[in-house]
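Bumping with the actual sequence this time:
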Amino acid sequence: MKVIIRSDKAGVFYGTLESKESTVAGVEVALTNCRRIWYWEGAATLSQLAVEGTKSPKQCKITIEVPSMTIMNVVEIIPCTEEAIASLDSVPVWKA
């Protein structure tokens, strides 16, 4: 399942949810095919981004895809719709 997650300190990520575990330190999530969402436009909130995607894909800053990543202290997991997945997958890779 493709999701957008928000962590306490590491930021916002988009990828495929592989596992979720509650630990003493908080919720830990493993994602595959993961991209960090550094900045987005074309959606007012992460909820809208997960449901509708972005109306401004060229204005978004979403990083290169990482094969797998574990994110600690996750405070929000939002499932993405097919519409949002198509939109987010169309965002060009932002890199130096």
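The tokens above came from a reply further down the thread. The beta strands are 2-7, 12-23, 26-39, 61-62, 66-71, 74-79.
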